[in-house]
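Hi there,

I know you've been waiting on this one. I reran it after we fixed the sequence typo, so this is the corrected version. Both the input and the resulting structure follow.
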Amino acid sequence: MTDTNSGADQPQYVVARVRDALVHDERVAALDIDIRIVGNGIFVTGAVATPARRRAVEEVVNELLPDYTLHNQLRVLDQGPPETAEEVT
């Protein structure tokens, strides 16, 4: 009897492939995005600098794992000016 399951689709390997893709894809190039697999869902959490970067993460994950349901829980950091002046003494 031969085991045909090489383990390549085990969640930890899928997560590693996604992380590697997000780091090396020039649209994203992010190290601090968390990836979690639950069943057929892939959950992406963390923070990105722009809405465009958030969409780029979606594109990369969907290209890599089209059969998974993506749950993009990334938040876009507020890059606006400070609301109050900082006192310098």
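Quick highlight: Strands lie at 34-38, 41-48, 69-76.

Best,
R. S.
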